[in-house]
Amino acid sequence: MASRMRDGAMRPYQPNSQRGLNYERRVLLLAMMAAVPGLVALAGWLWWSGADSQAWLGLFTPVCLLSMAMAAYLRRRVVFPLYTLSNLLEALREGDFSLRGTRARRGDAIGEVIWEINALSETLRQQRLRVEETLALLTKVMAAVDIAIFAFDSQQRLRLINPAGERLLARKADEVQGLLASELGLDDSLAIDNAATIKHAFPGGAGTFDVRHAVFREGGLRNDLLTITDLSQALREEERRAWQRLIRVLGHELNNSLAPIKSMATTLADLLMREPPPSDWREDAGYGLGVIAERADALARFMAGYTALAKLPPPRKRSVDLSGLLARVRTLETRVPVSSDIAEGIHVEVDPDQLEQALINLVKNAAEASVALQGGVSIHAIVQAAVVRIEVIDEGPGLSGSENLFVPFFTTKPGGSGIGLVLARQIVEAHGGSLRLRNRTDRSGCVAEVVLPA
To answer: What region holds the HAMP domain (predicted)?
Structure first.
């Protein structure tokens, strides 16, 4: 046993302190005892032959001395390899894996042991090298990431911090090492069970942060790992891009309506200022006012679409037979043939009104794309694992670009509102699903894929 249980805890093994012959002396004694039968036989022969004292002294004494020398030599040959093994094991215990034992060979008892110890030393050296390389990589990764990382021991004292954590606390690592989480203002973050998004003011900056807390054990004791990500800059950048897209689309739509309204208003003003007025001024005025009314109606539809997108209510879910819902959607489209391949008995927990509206928009877009090539539309619905997959497949020209498909109010169709796809995706995501568009691989056309939880 390399350890002993004492008072309920593991303690290092202590050698037996009782007095007695050690291993080396026992080996020497056994070697000398091995020579006793020979010496007894020699003494019996000398006594039987009636040898005098000179014969005893000249023959028996050298044999005794030779036996003692052979016993000492045998003791050395037995003990010396054990000291070598002890030195090798001590080097391994001290972490020195460069020491190797000689005379390591197969087919020899001691040689086998030395061979295995050398192999163990090489294995441990390779493992330590991999650990050191992994730690070096981990250190570089922690220094490179822009996420504050903190590790606390079982008493919630800081053990590890990376450069991003130093910036967040506005203090150097050597200043905060060993301080309590409460002294660093991180005790509230440690109280989070798993992950949360919070608004907080740290010494290094205030804003919105993603906080993640995990627990690990070292030496049987609980330790805490805390990561804090500053979301403020990312949120501001995403908000800026969203505003840019929205303003670009709003500006495009407003210009499309206001430019002809302004032009027609100027034309009508010039017409009314003429003296005498032209004979057909009533027709020109009626046409101009009609253009102004048409563009005003377009702006009204635009604002109505914006309102519908911005005020979508949360879904009221209930169990719905998907085949019946898709059958109603299919019958609403009459411009192109719509086929379906829907398994019976598929039920989903959805808001039927909202999901039907989303699917109507997808089928409508598919039909408009298929009309130009006199194609058709097909609807497929299957259950895969824990999701229901609905595909609306058209036979149109396909997608030329997908970067602006889900930008609100962006449209490539004359008279389009640009909210159909956006509204459909918003409805699907409100149900915990996803919507994506991709081109067909078997022929021209597009596939709108809706994935919902089963």
So the answer is: 76-129
